Amino acid sequence: MYEICPETPADEYEVEALYDLCFAPGRTALSSYRLRDGVPKVAELCLVLRDPSNIVVAAIRFWPVRVGGHATLLLGPIAVHPTAQGEGLGGMLMRDSLARAASIGWGRVLLVGDAPYYSRFGFIKLPGVEMPPPTNPDRILGLELHPGAWVDVAGPVTRERSPNALAAMAHAETITPAEPCKEVAKPQDDEARPAIAGNSAADH
Ligand SMILES: CC(C)(COP(=O)(O)OP(=O)(O)OC[C@H]1O[C@@H](n2cnc3c(N)ncnc32)[C@H](O)[C@@H]1OP(=O)(O)O)[C@@H](O)C(=O)NCCC(=O)NCCS
After folding, report:
1. How many domains does the chain have?
2. Reported confidence tier of residue 198, pLDDT bands at 50, 70, 90
3. What is the rounded radius of gyration, in angstroms, for the C-alpha atoms of the chain?
4. The domain containing residue 120 runs over which residues?
5. 166 within domain boundaries
6. Nearest ligand 1 atom, CA 91
7. Which of 60, 77, 129, 190 has its CA 20 to 30 A from that of 42?
8. Is the CB of 78 under 6 A from ligand 1?
9. Is 141 in the pocket of ligand 1 (CB under 6 A)?
10. Of 114, 112, 113, 142, which Cα lies nearest the Cα of 126?
11. What CATH number is associated with residue 92?
12. 3-class DSSP state for residue 96?
């Protein structure tokens, strides 16, 4: 069985090594990283997926940001080990983390990435949202975890400066305890996807 767990400090080295493997050198120089500098991750949504040998084969992280002043989740980076790509693991981690995000009260999610990939999870272009330059506007995508969460939310994306972003959210009253580790079955072979080349699904 595979296991999905919230990332702990002990996982840091393996997760960073996975990201270094999957992304081009200098990934942390991207402008999206300036939104993360000095801001704590959303710990309960940063997940690692371990294979039956206890190796980290996939990881996803989230940070809080503001869009036009509204608390928003920034998704990414997400990466799956090159030897395990196209097997459905990335999709599994996306869906699991987004379900956890909804269950703890987040309403809207933002990412910068390939619409052809992220549209399968419900992400659509956000024409009124401005990431720090240089960012291709066609790659700025959003998902509503709560109906209407992106309505009238636009403007520049900025760092989260509030120590408690959740408290500022409209649906904070729905917060429930974070889900711990859980065992998951590997997606069935007949659901497996062919591996894809390149590493540009999302900026990170
Ligand atoms: C992008 C990534 C996370 C997807 O995870 P995965 O486990 O390989 O993907 P899944 O097996 O769940 O899904 C495979 C499907 O996604 C598609 N896909 C993957 N990357 C894509 C991309 N950049 N653009 C369009 N489609 C893409 C595949 O073609 C396949 O499509 P299909 O369902 O029509 O056959 C993984 O390939 C990866 O780590 N890539 C390198 C790092 C990266 O780009 N990360 C995202 C930036 S934050």
Report:
1. 1
2. very low
3. 16
4. 2-191
5. yes
6. 12
7. 129
8. yes
9. no
10. 142
11. 3.40.630.30
12. helix
